[in-house]
Amino acid sequence: MRDPKSVHDKEWRTGWKSLDTALDQERRFQVVSDIVSPSAPKMIFDLGCGNGYQAETLKKPFPGVIVKGCDISPAAIEKASKRMDSCYVLDIDSSNLPEDNESCDLVLCIAVLEHLYDVYHALKEIHRILKPGKHTLIQVPNLSFWRFRLDVLRGKIPYILRDPRHLHSFNKGFLLERLAHSGFTDFHVYGQRQRIKWLASLSPSLFSEEIFVLATKNIPKSLSTKK
Does domain 4-224 have CATH number 3.40.47.10? Predict the structure, then answer.
């Protein structure tokens, strides 16, 4: 892939994402809100925040919530600055997050990991800024989606593998393995569908084109045993 920063910046500046209504039909923003609502976070960090559309969605059910974030695209951050409490340009492949250790109640990483060179570095940084016992929500395309399996059986390459922006591919097992290796536990897996939505709940790994995993940062034993 060409320089990731220029590729993603072009999408936000002159490509399809540059339109004000580009994300209006994306169901994932509401799915994210529904998943994280029970935890009622007060401090959220959105890694790969784009234009801040997700932050705006979260601020409706959580009045007073602080939503910070970063994105590789300066064009996206220009838009996000109008919706978020704070945001900045950052390439997570080459930089650490300038956030304090254990400072966030929730870290979002939506449609990001597949674009990165160094997945473990991103997960390490997410783990570092999360408070013990708090959650991260990860979303990635699901290579095990039944239509993608059928494509392979028919001798075709699924479109998620043909996307030049995608540097990694995931299914449920592969993502959970990486999360566990990075210090997360207590995984809850979700899916989404435009039609026949109950199928995604029945088996996200098979019937969802995208999978969401809510994972928890372990509470150190030294803290959990304190009275």
Answer: no
Nearest residue to 83 (alpha-carbon basis) of 40, 130, 33, 49: 49
CA distances from 74 to 11, 48, 50, 117, 160 (A): 11, 12, 9, 19, 25
pLDDT digits (tens, 9 = 90+) for 132-159: 999 999 999 999 999 999 999 999 999 9
DSSP state of 170: B
Residue whose pair of structure tokens reads 């570095």 in the numeric block:
121
In degrees rounded to 5, what are phi and psi of residue 20?
A: -60, -30
CA angle 185, 189, 191 (to 5 degrees): 160
Reported pTM? 0.93
| Domain assignments of the chain as residue spans, ordered by start | 4-224
Specify whether the CB–CB gap between 184 and 176 falls below 8 A: no
Residue among 17, 138, 118, 137 at smallest CA distance from 76: 17
Whether the Cβ atoms of residue 77 and residue 71 lie closer than 8 Å to each other: yes
Query: Do residues 190 and 31 touch, judged by C-beta distance below 8 A?
Result: yes
158 token code pair:
């699924």
